[in-house]
Design goal:
The protein is an alpha+beta fold. Helices cover 21% and strands 21% of the residues. The chain is built from two helices and five strands, in the order H-E-E-E-H-E-E.
Amino acid sequence: MSDCLFCKIAKGEIPSSKVYEDEQVFAFLDIDPQAPKHILVIPKTHIQSVAAVTPENAGVVAHIFEVIARIAAEQGFSEGFRVVSNVGEQGGQTVHHLHFHVLAGRDMTWPPG
């Protein structure tokens, strides 16, 4: 999608603080962190949200979770972190490109609010 913020970030058209990149996935620091460590992990291919995951694109989603585990180990917070994906307006999704918030560096509470 030509007007998608996260597609533009993944292509390098909009600057970001890159944490990880490979052929399928891009990870960067959130500009409004909700925890001491707050990383967004996105597929480079546009997928609208978790609700749009299909058998055809599920492989990249599985790969994202492998990348999340790798980032957590490399960043030193593999002992405890939270992974969140908001879906749709009511779910709090503001950028309609599948993304996972990886939050760490503080105790997480439940419910999250």
